[in-house]
Amino acid sequence: MLSRIPSRCAVVGPSFRRGLATEATTASSQQPSPSQLPSEPAKKPSRPHIKTAIILNRSPILTRTPTAFEKAYYSYQARIRRALHNPFPYEFYFKQGTLLETRFNLEERKRERLAFGPGFLEKEDISEEKRQANIAAVEQLAQQEGEGEELMPRQHEADIKNDQKSLDRMGQRNLYLVVQVTENGKDIWRFPQGDVEKGQLLHQAAQKNLLAVCGDKMDTWIVGRAPVGVHKPEPQSDSPESVIFFHKAHIMAGQVVADGKNIKDFRWLSYQEIRDTVEPSYWESIKDILSEF
Amino acid sequence: MSQVSRKAKGFSLTRFQRAPRINRALARHPKTGLPQPPVKIVTREFAPCRLEDHYHTTLKDDLMYMTYTHEIGERRAPRQIRLKFDPEDPYSKYRKNPPVGGSQVGKKPAPPSTPENIVRLEKIQLHTMVKEATANKSHLLPAIMQLKALSGESYKAGGRHAVEGIQIIRGKKSVGGWVRPGIPIGAKVDLKGQAMYDFLGTLTEFVLPRLRDFNGVVLPPQSSSSNTPSTVAGVVSFGLPPSAIGFFPQIEVNIDAYPKLSGMHIHFVTNATGIGAQDRARALVSGFQVPFVRR
């Protein structure tokens, strides 16, 4: 829908090459001095090597736990709302004398008591036996409806074990996939990346490389067609300059498979953990793309 | 200290102290007779909002990447092709001055992409028209109650002057045998903030999955014009039939109380403007799991 516009696709083509070769054009347009010509033949600067990397994101799967201040604020606002709300139309929602109405009244009294204290409530004008019978009936109803099931804990097992390969860890945070590879005889952590073939669109190459590096056992979606960031590694003495374009993607299902050939290991890390894991120069390029929380 | 922590653990609502004793009788509102507090009381967010968090943690970044248009430098001013209206000129002073080349509404360019104008949801409007209300306006009552149950909004609720609650729509034109100006014919309600996200959550989790033969909101064909006023206004709309209204849990709980359910239009109003605004609005709304399909 949005990416129908072709100009937003980044094609590896002549336009990009021309932009980087400007220096060479100006150099060749100058009048070469005769003394330079035989010794140094006009050297064509090599084309930069283009790569794509995927920032694979696991979005938060839990709501954020409110801070103590937020909790106090919310409870204060909830009490104001409770104090100011319009009268509840009981007769519209409940038939007179039904169990559902009794339950609602009991729960409502409990909530009022919680909000404004025991002194606020008016005394019920029913006998003690009747009150106990009501409570028993409501409890029975709750049992029939299977209420009172325990909620899942907000801290997953993976958090306790600090299992950095699990997608269930840190449910409230944004997690990103980093992989371990050997580059120039050194083990480093970085985002999964790969080369771009000639004529291939960047986002297509990114999708292909992700599958090639991390296996096809996961369901992912790449956000848009345009890259979200760029990193230029320091050029090695012999190899040509290279440029890495980052694409953002989301993981929907599945998990990465580390085959040991392309990647040695993988981890799902938060912003702060990535800062301590990757190379400082790499971090400078990616730190503004990632969510801090 | 221990008392405070015990309290905080045991109760979800934390009470700090008892409410102040009221020494003097409060002034009464002359019309309603209700006691008026000496200060203006406004209620704000009373619970964390899941979908709003989802927008800020996930959707906002993605929408920025998807809708970003790169521009270098400032935009050039639009070309002036004919003399502008000059109020000093006695010839043009009292003459009509239509824009050159017809209406420019659909050709308005989108504002430059900035972090401030990433597309966001401003409000959701629910709107229902009850045809029978032309004959007897009491037919509007179930529709009003339905909107009330769905939105929970009332006039100036929570001390907020901008909350208008359920509004009655009156006829504007005279259409023979149908509408007369001034007669009540429908009802609408604007949802903003937390109420808006709550409604959106209910819609996408309880209602849309339970609709039969609903694959998604139908998109216009690809060949349709891209510069009509509606495509540059950043509003996404669709309708729900009366049979779908019963799937809302607020209605379902006492569906017998409604003599007749009426279908409604849902308008998602976003801040997107200019060319392609409706596409950007759809991208946002689909991020909240409202499906779209193309026929």
Automatic annotation (TrEMBL), chain A:
Q: Give the chief site where it resides.
A: mitochondrion
In its keyword annotation, does this UniProt entry include Ribosomal protein?
A: yes
Q: Where in the cell is it found?
A: Mitochondrion
- Region annotated Disordered, chain positions: 22-48
Query: Large ribosomal subunit protein mL46 N-terminal domain location, by residue?
Result: 49-159
Q: Please name the GO terms that the record assigns under molecular function.
A: structural constituent of ribosome
Q: Return the GO cellular component terms, semicolon-separated.
A: mitochondrial large ribosomal subunit
UniProt keyword list: Mitochondrion, Ribonucleoprotein, Ribosomal protein, Transit peptide
Question: InterPro entries from the xrefs?
Answer: NUDIX_hydrolase-like_dom_sf, Ribosomal_mL46, Ribosomal_mL46_N, Ribosomal_mL46_NUDIX
Compositionally biased, Low complexity: which spans? 28-39
Protein family: Belongs to the mitochondrion-specific ribosomal protein mL46 family.
Q: What is this protein called?
A: Large ribosomal subunit protein mL46
Organism ancestry? Eukaryota, Fungi, Dikarya, Basidiomycota, Agaricomycotina
Automatic annotation (TrEMBL), chain B:
Extract the InterPro entries matched here.
Answer: Ribosomal_uL5 (IPR002132), Ribosomal_uL5_C (IPR031309), Ribosomal_uL5_dom_sf (IPR022803)
Pfam families linked: Ribosomal_L5_C
Q: Where is the Large ribosomal subunit protein uL5 C-terminal domain?
A: 184-292
* Tree of life domain: Eukaryota
What's a single GO MF annotation on this record? structural constituent of ribosome
> Which residue ranges are recorded for the region named Disordered?
82-115
Alphabetically, which GO biological process terms does the record hold? translation
A Gene Ontology CC term for this entry? ribosome
Q: Compositional bias of type Basic and acidic residues: which residue ranges?
A: 82-92
**Coiled-coil residues:** none
Similarity comment text for this entry: Belongs to the universal ribosomal protein uL5 family.
Q: What protein name does the entry list?
A: Large ribosomal subunit protein uL5 C-terminal domain-containing protein
